[in-house]
Each structure stands twice: as C-alpha cells, then as structure tokens.
## 1
Amino acid sequence: MDYLPAIARWLHFMAGVMWIGLLYYFNFVQVAALKAAAADSTAAGITKHVAPSALFYFRWSALVTWLAGAALLGGNFAAAFTLNGSYAVIGIGAWLGTIMLLNVWGIIWPNQKKILGFKPATDEEKVKARRIAFLASRTNTMLSIPLLFFMAAGAHSAIYGF
Amino acid sequence: MKNPLDSLWGTVITGLLLTIVLYFVAQKLVVLA
C-alpha cells in the first residue's frame, strides 16, 4: 500500500522533531538553567515539574522515531544496516539513530531515574549517575549532527558522486 | 586533556568533524559498490 511509507515518513519526522528538540532543550537550555537554579535553590521547579515530563516524551519519541524509520526502510532495512552500496548513506544515519536510541534507553533513562529519585540511590551514586547521564546526553547531541546530515543528505546523491 | 563534550561548542565541533569523517566513509562505500 502506497500510504504506509508516507505515513511512516510523517511519523518519523514528527517523533524525530520531538526527540531531537527535547535533546537540544536538555543540552542547550536545561543544563545551564539547572546550574543557575541550584545557586538560588529553585532547581526543584525543574527537576520535579519539567524534567520528568520532558524525559517521558524524550524516551518514547526516540522509540517511535526508530520504529517509524525502520518501517520507512521497509524491505531496504538490511541493505541500509549492512551499508550496502548507495544504502550506505541512509545506513550510516540508521546506525547513528540506533546507537542514540540505545543510549537513551540503556544509559540516560536508567541514570535519570536515580537522579530524579524514581529509583533509590545514595548521594554518591547520584553524583556518578549525573555525570554518566550528562556525557551520554552530550554524546547524543554530538551524534545528532552527522545523523541529521545523513538523513537529509540522502536525498542529494550528487554529493556522493552517484 | 579536557573532554570536548563538557562544553557545548566542543560538542558541536566534534559532531561537525565526525560528519566530515563519515561523509568520506559513505563516499568510499558508495564508490566501492
């Protein structure tokens, strides 16, 4: 059915905008805001009322983005992930997105649960979790730059000479 | 050595450098096919 790839692409874009938008919010806005808020004891406003909700949409939009991307690849899924010929372009994007998704669910979210108090943790464990979650989030911000290049550049094959 | 991911500019510059490296990797893979 011709509608399926179109709907998958639409969903991939909507969820992707939410995912990367929230990732950039965390890295470009919230990290600095939390530092400033900690100085005047207002950080709880962010950690109690903003961060849990932002993290909810962040992790689920990451999953929807990946699933919609996989649906969009359809029968070319294996060719993309094996970096086969011209599929190497979108394949690199797909691998970067997969690494980022695993980073969200395997590293960022488990550590954020300790930081936000959803999972019991000592102060020392929280300090460690904060550093790990921060670096994982920064890694995803860094990876999002080539990810978006390969998603967008895939439509401009001339830059690869084919 | 300072971790470039500790600063926003370091993160963005690292991402741009990785994009350039991966662009040449992609080009190689496409040409080889």
## 2
Amino acid sequence: MAVTVTNKKAVRKPEKKRKLTWAVLKSQQQLIWMSVPLTLYIILFAYVPVWGWTMAFQNYKPARSFSQQDWVGFKQFKFLFTDDDFMRVLRNTLGMSIINLVLGFVTAIVLALLLNEIRKVIWKRTVQTISYLPHFLSWVIVTGIVATSLASDGIVNDILMKLHLIKEPILWLSEGKYFWGIVGASHVWKEVGWNTIIYLAAMASIDPALYEAAEMDGANRYRKMLHVTLPGIKSTIVILLIMSIGHILDAGFEVQYLLGNGLVVDWAETIDIFVLKYGIAQGNYSLATAGGIFKTVVSVALLLVANWTAKRLGEERLL
Amino acid sequence: MSMENHQISPQGAAGVTIRKSMRSSKVEPVLFNTINAIFMIFLVVVTLYPFLNTIAVSLNAGNDTIRGGIYLWPRQWTLQNYKAVFASGTIYDAFWISVARTVLSTVLNIFLTTMLSYTLSRKEYVFRKPITVIFVLTMYFSAGLIPGYFLIKDLHLLNSFWVYIFPSMISAFNMIVIRTYIGTIPDSLVESAKIDGAGDFKIFLRIIFPLCTPVLATIALFVAVGAWNSWFDAFLYTSSRQELSTLQYELMKLLSSSMNSNSNPNVAAGVGVNQETAVSMVTPLSIRAAITIVASVPILVVYPFLQKYFVVGLNVGSVKE
C-alpha cells in the first residue's frame, strides 16, 4: 500500500527520484539497518509520550485503566488560567526569561566587540579560554558559588561594605525583589564568554577591505566598531534573537530550583517548577500535564512565527 | 615528505603573523586599549575568583575557614577535606557512577549519532526525508515532564542505571551538525569505496567516522559535559536507590541542606563523613568545596584543548535542509 502511494508521488515530481522498489530496498538494506532502528527508538522516546497528553483532559487516577478515566474536557486548562498560582509562575517565567534574554544578548555582543579589539592573539585566546570556564560548570556548582558569594559574609557583601556602599550585609537570597536580578546575573556569569563564540566567528568573516575603506574615510576605532563590525554581525544577531523568542517560556529550571527557598518562592517558581511540584510531588498529574502542554504549544507557535519572520527578513531558514 | 611539511608550515605561520602585525602597527588610541585591558582583567578576575576561592577553601582546614578571611590562599593547608570526600563511601560510589554514565553515554551517543548522520547524508537513501523530519521535529517540541516520567516508569527504567543512558542516546541537533560536516567530505571518497565493493556500514566505520574527528571531538565534549553535569535524572528517577546516585546529585543534596540550615554539622555526617573528623577538621562548607573541585576538574582540564573546534559545533547558521 505505502509503496504504491509513494510511487505515485515520485512520478508526479519532475526531479529524478529513486522509486521505492524491492531492488532499491535490498541495495540500501545496510542504510536501513543503520537508521530505522534508531528512528523507532526516537519515536518511542520523543513521540510515544505525547499520548500522555490525554491526561490533561482527564481527571487522571493512576489506579484506573485508560477506559475507566473520567474525561473532563478543558477543565484543567480553565483551572490553570484562573489559578493565581499559575499566573504567578507565568509572570516569573516571562520576567526572568526577558531579563535573561536582554542581559544575555547585550553582554555577549559588548564582550565580543571588546574581545575583537584585542590585537595580541595570545591575550585574546587567554581571555577567551578563561571566559568559557563557567559554561562547563554544572548549575549545581554555579548556584553553590552564587550562594557562597552572596552569603552575609560572602565576597559581594564584603566588597560593598569595604566600599562603604552599604552598612549592613544584604541578605540577597532571602528577598524576592533581588531574585530575578540574581538569576540574570548568574546566567551572564555562566554563559557570557560562551555566547561570544558565534559573534566572534561572524566578526572574523567580515571583509578586511571594509575596515581599510573606513580608515581611509578617517574613521577611528569606535566608528569602525559602530559602522563596520556591528553591521557585520547584524544578521547573526537577528537570527539568534529570533531563535531565542521560541524559548521565551524556558526561563530555566535548575537555577530557580536550586537557588530558590521558602522566602522567595513567590518570585522564584517557573512553569517547570510548577509542573514538578504539582505532578511529581503532589501527584496531580492532570494539572501538571496541562501546564506542560501549555508551555510546549506556546513554544512551538512562537517558533513557527519566528521562522516565518526570519524568512520574511531574508535570513536563512531556521527550521 | 614530512621534512618538506615541516619547512612549509613555519613559513605559512610567519606569513600570517606579518599580516596581523601590519594591522596592529597602526597608531591606536592608548586610552581605548587601557580601558579595554582593565575591563578584560576585571572579567578574568570575576570569572576565576569564585573558582580559585573554592580551591583555597577545599585545601584549608574546615574549622579554620569558619573564622573567615580565606580568599585565594589557604591558611592552614590540609588534604583532610579530600580524604574525607573519598573516605565517604557514598561520594566514592557516586563518583564512579558519574564516570560510568559519562563514558558510556558519550561513546554510544557519538557512535549512534554519527551512524545516523551518515545514512541521512546519502542523497540516494529512500527514507532520507521522512527520517530527517522525524528527528528534526524532536528539537521543537517535548512531551513534557509528566508524560516522560510515565514512559520511563512503563519501560521499567525507574531506579535503574540505564535510565542515565537510554533516554539520551541520540540528539537531533548533534545529528544535524555532524551531517553538515559529512556534507563537506568529498562524495568521491564514498563512491570509489562503493566501486571497490564496500558496504555502507564499512564505509561509515572506516572512512566517514575517522574523517569526522574534529566535529566529533566537540560533540563528545558537549555530550560528556551534559552527562557529567546532570543531576535531575538522578533526582527524578533513581533517588530511592542511593547506590545509583551521581556526584552532581550528591553535591545538590549537600547544597540544598546547607542552604536551608547554615553550618549544621549533621550535614557532613549526612554524606557519610565520619563524625569525629567532621567535628575536628572538616565542615560542610569545606566538604562542599572539595566535592565541587572533584566534580569540575575533569572537564576543566579537557576543554581548553578542544577550543579551536567549538565554532564547528556551534555554527547553527549553516544549518540547512
């Protein structure tokens, strides 16, 4: 059956395409053995669990079989959008995500511009290597470092006290108003060096003749940065920006989970933590799954919009 | 042959240096360079200080660290913290579980992902398009935490070592990166091997796999870092079996208990550290510092050597289908 259908399609296409016949299958049997089992594997681990989305439309009870479950339609979703708790985690997710996005982009671009101005290759390489280091540390280690640095006797309070900027140590991790900023700063500390790689690669491919021409016109260092380097990496910035829009609901999970505590819970919980809390800890699988579906659906929709935008802007396709 | 090569390469390098120094020989504003240098030093200090401080704390007597004032250099040198870490059976076991899962994940992941990438790089392969689509779509959606948990449960992978390996054997993103790289290898290599009668598996193993070394080095590093650094799967799937715990998960438990109750001596006892040593020399803080160093050093000694390949693995812009 499938064979004939594919055949018809193949005939209709003007380009030369191999017909799906037993002879072809036989001649490609090694390719098939090398790829089809892996495809079945990914279907099992990535596609089969989507079946679990049915839980979001039920009042799921683990003890019952599938046919015995109560179907409740969109009740779980209606509950989500009227639930103060979910609105709060949605606000936190968007807030931290936007802070991370803006801080992440600005710091990486500025650092890449400055690194690009270092003329001595050995210094540039050394600073780059050191700046990559935190990227390879786990969030467990990074949050440990953050917590130590921000403790009442930590290095941050130490320096601020010595500079007489504050009189009493600030309890950074005990107050909700600092939490988003701390998460943003932690992300910058961990990833800023790493995020410069792609910009530096783009800068390396800028035609040196452009710099020479700018110099002839009397442009100094700042003008060259502003009018040659920055436009040279514009398309890279646009692509990365569009791609990150699809991840606007990925404010992170680990850093908030590890740094959060009872005192700042109102500002620390994201959608992922909400799902974990309701699903795994409290056993409300239906509600947690609904939260997860919301996140996936919004992300996919945003990605499609981003991809369409990228195409309209004449950038390379992302999908 | 090799003599000639030796003579050619220094000349080539010299040529590059001359061109670069010509550009830098122009008069440049001193002010800009000074400010830039200060900024870079600031960046290096901010990046390295917390790490160097952790090393200093891990090498300092725990009961002395509490007095404060340890910055970059230990005051009372001791290896007691490290001894305590490795004397504790839990940490020792967790360390080896971490090593095992990292090695196994990386080897399997690299082999299987490259094999798949090779098949999807063959233009004549009849299932090329559908299989590519099936894999690429997995980059854009996820069934989510709860359905994923139920799958693991239904597959009887809960509280099993294999839960660290099976769910993440192939990554679609890495597949695309490797496939793009294979695309740069001349097709005539594969064609001539086929004429010589080699099958696809043999071509993959003998020709393509060795030629992919530069890109595989980066991806192996990324996969290894991911496996070594993860704690969430241990937390979610194997937390009821202590002997399957990983180093990062042990560190995470230690961190969360010490954040909830600062300087609680029972925390050190909690990881199986002898109570006597815990009181005299070792504190939760110093133990944590020692585990942090043990958990980060293996990766930190490797990555600088692979730095030049990073950009290959990150060049998302060149992805096309």
